[in-house]
Amino acid sequence: MSNAVTLTEAAAKRVGRIAEMRSRPPMLRLSVEGGGCSGFQYRFDLAEQIESDDAVSETDGVKLVIDPVSLDLVAGSTVDFVESLGGAAFRVENPNAAAGCGCGSSFGI
């Protein structure tokens, strides 16, 4: 399994739009924090800068930035942007997650 984390075209387009509205560079930071209903939760923010130990991937000119601790928990994942009747949100398809919650924002290992 690859350690790379990829950003779908839909997610890249959404990040680009948000970054443009906020006059920020098109960089999404994905991090993992303790908490959530399943033990860990995903956190998304526009990144201000890339740290020297961050993992970076790029889709359509948009960078996905992940710190090394979070990368261990999301290696091989895909970040997507999904719109449905329930709302619109970034979703992580994480092959490392043994459990998840209904909202898709937290997971367990």
Protein topology:
Blueprint (H helix, E strand, L loop, with lengths): L5 E2 L1 H13 L5 E8 L5 E7 L8 E5 L2 E5 L1 H7 L3 E7 L2 E7 L5 E2 L5 E3 L1
Parallel strand pairs: 1-6, 2-5
Antiparallel strand pairs: 2-3, 3-9, 4-5, 6-7, 8-9
Description:
The protein is of the alpha+beta class. It has one domain (6-108): Hypothetical Protein Aq_1857, Chain: A (Sandwich). 18% of the residues lie in helices and 42% in strands. The protein contains 2 helices and 9 strands, in the order E-H-E-E-E-E-H-E-E-E-E. It has a 6-stranded mixed beta sheet with strand order 4-5-2-3-9-8. It has a 3-stranded mixed beta sheet with strand order 1-6-7. The two termini are 16 Å apart. The mean pLDDT is 87.
User: Beta-strand level of the residues, as a percent range?
Assistant: 35-45%
CATH class type: Mainly Beta
- Give the CATH H-level superfamily: HesB-like domain
* Number of domains as seen in the coordinates: 1
Structural class: alpha+beta
Question: What string, H for helix and E for strand, traces the elements in order?
Answer: EHEEEEHEEEE
The main β sheet shows up as: 6 strands, mixed
In the predicted model, the low-confidence regions spanning at least 5 consecutive residues are none
CATH topology: Hypothetical Protein Aq_1857, Chain: A
The number of helices is: 2
Q: If strands are numbered along the chain, what order do they take across the biggest sheet?
A: 4-5-2-3-9-8
Form type: globular
The N- to C-terminal Cα distance equals 16 Å
